[in-house]
Each structure stands twice: as structure tokens, then as C-alpha cells.
Design a protein that fits this description.
By secondary structure, this protein is an all-alpha fold. Helices cover 63% and strands 0% of the residues.
Amino acid sequence: MTGWLKLALNTMKVFILFTGCTILFYYGLMWINEEYQSYHRYDEPEGSAIKVTAMVSDSNKSLVDRLWLFYHFGE
């Protein structure tokens, strides 16, 4: 009978440890989410930032040229 009691006690210890680690992990993820929730990554840049891309509308390109660029640059 003491074997079953030890087994039940050890099972309860593992369950409590697993539950505690799961709760700690959950609240850690929630804390990280709250930290980055207020991070504004799409704000206007400050200082001497410049725009590095420009949309070019070149309608003279053939389908083969566009396909070559697609395969060459992977876009």
C-alpha cells in the first residue's frame, strides 16, 4: 500500500511542477507581449533618414524581362 502512496505523491509533485512551469511560461509570454505592444515600429523616422526605394512604372518591359527579374531576385 505504501508503494501506491509514494507513486501518487510523486505523480502529484510532477503535476504541480508542470503546472507551475506552464503558468510561469504563460505569464512570461504575456509580459513580453506587453513590452512589445507599445513599440511603435511604423512611426516616422527621425533625423536624416531618407527614402531608399521609389516606385518606377516601366510599362515597356516584356513578360520575359519581368519573369527574368522575378527569378533573378526571387521577388
